[in-house]
Amino acid sequence: MMSTARLPYARLAPKAFQGLLSLSNAIRKDLLGHRLVDLVFLRVSQINGCAYCVDMHWRDLMQQDIDARQANAVAAWREAPFFDARERAALRWAEIVTALPQADASDEEFALLRAQFSDEEIAELGFAIAAINAWNLLNVSFRNPLPEQAGA
Predict the structure, then answer these.
(1) Phi–psi pair at 147, nearest 5 degrees
(2) Average pLDDT of every residue of the chain
(3) Quick one: which of 43, 21, 148 has its CA closest to 91?
(4) Are the C-beta atoms of 109 and 120 separated by less than 8 Å?
(5) String of b and e for 11-50 (b: at least 16 CB within 10 Å)?
(6) Residue 65, phi-psi category: left (phi > 0), alpha (psi -120 to 50), beta (remainder)
(7) In this model, does residue 5 exceed pLDDT 90?
(8) Of 19, 12, 5, 15, which Cα lies nearest the Cα of 130?
(9) For the residues of 27-70, what is the DSSP string, one character each?
């Protein structure tokens, strides 16, 4: 992987960048829970192969004092004992939405999600999944490099 970005997309498209940043900042982490949102962000970033976002959201989870084993097990959440029913439902839905149109966001899958979340929470989760997918696509396609140092 190249160590420099293909182009500085934030500088070249500042209005669009600020719009996406505003969307990200509008996500109600207080409603969904910071940990849950970062678990979803980490999982979607893993699926999309976005090293920049995987690094960022892993560090965010570490700042929340999540056990490193739990964060490292996100890619294998189905087999790992660290996740509750709500987190599992969110991770499952995030994977389905991220894989559209190949995945099936069926009524049965939606019912499983609805068993754990209110309609308002599902709407917020949808925007969280959409936002992280957008960041992933931008960072991967423009090869946004990892920061030299953690926290940079």
Answers:
(1) -60, 150
(2) 94
(3) 43
(4) no
(5) eeeeeeeeebeeeeeebeeeebbebbbbbbbbbbbbbbeb
(6) left
(7) no
(8) 19
(9) S-HHHH-HHHHHHHHHHHHHHHT-HHHHHHHHHHHHHTT--HHH
44-81 pLDDT, tens digit per residue, is 999 999 999 999 999 999 999 999 999 999 999 999 99
Amino acid at 130: A
pLDDT tier at 4, thresholds 50, 70, 90: confident
Question: How large is the greatest C-alpha to C-alpha distance in the chain, in angstroms?
Answer: 44
Q: What is the DSSP string of 96-149?
A: HHHTTTTS---HHHHHHHHTTS-HHHHHHHHHHHHHHHHHHHHHHHTTPPPPSS
Helix (H, G, I), strand (E, B) or coil at 12: helix
Please give the Cα distance from 103 to 106 (Å, whole number).
9
Global pTM value = 0.93
Distance CA 64, CA 35 (A): 7
Q: What distance in Å separates the CA atoms of residue 134 and residue 148, rounded to the nearest whole number?
A: 23
The pLDDT score that the predictor gives to residue 89 is 98
